[in-house]
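re: ur msg from earlier - yeah i can do the glutamic acid complex, just paste it... oh wait u already did. ok heres what im feeding in:
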Amino acid sequence: MDSVADPRTYDLDALRARILPEAEGTVDRSIPQLARADPDLVALALVTVDGVVNSSACADVELSIQSAVKPFLFALALEDTRGEALDQVGIEPTGEAFDAIKLESGTGRPPNPMVNAGALLTASLVYGEDVAARNERIHAGLSAFAGRELDVDEEIARNEHLLGDRNHALAHLMRSEGTLALGVDDTVAVYARACATMVDARDLALMGATLAAGGRNPVTGVNVVSAQVARDVISVMATCGVYDGSGRWMRQVGVPAKSGVSGTIVLSAPGSLGAAVVSPPLDDQGTSVRGHRASEILSEDLALHSFATSR
Ligand code: GLU
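and the outut:
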């Protein structure tokens, strides 16, 4: 076996240069701000569980977090409900697209927190007396994961809310099943605003590292969620994080991860590191093409695959 590289000194700019020529994939067009994304943006970052940050060029370019927020919404919902969120959302992979209009048969619960139905529900479970308070709790929680005060792009939030017909449909469906306590429009608004949180690759890597370190931010030292919550979230990222591409991802990369349609991917290797790979062109499942390729290489070079042995 080739020698294993050290994540603290690993040459992320060399990896960036290697994947930059990859030209496959298309930028998401669901809202105008995403359609205007730079298809040549590539940024990578790693944060070890002892707080060493390593990043490439462009790691400070911000974009909306989109579905890479879902593990963190799940984490905040678990924390705020003392684990009871697990009674209200399933944890089984669907093998279907992120916005499939489908609930768990028999229970009417969303199938898992990594698809839109589940993330709408977990957003509604984060504690807050009204929409403003819930938004504030989510904003503070995401900022604690990232170790700095994050911005929200209000225009993206508004467009996600207004143009999110399928999200409204999912929320209506959950209301009709009695599984969503909050109103439809409020639920979609809270979720849309969470997706519009602005992060760069470094933020996202630190968010992943906080889960990988058992819920304690390894740079700020703040305990953001409990170790049990971090473990639950990473488990579900492993099985459901890359939607209907989760099986292929696990085989090829072997690191629990969550992708988003802006081209964000956050990875959490428990006890080891968090990583982020950002590049807007997406494959058919809504995962960054360059991000997937870079994650495979990182996993190989840093020996991160969960199921590889050294034989
Ligand atoms: N804002 C997007 C939606 O809910 C997120 C989808 C994604 O990133 O996969 O439609």
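cool cool. The CA atoms of residues 124 and 182 lie 6 Å apart. ping me if u need the other ligands too
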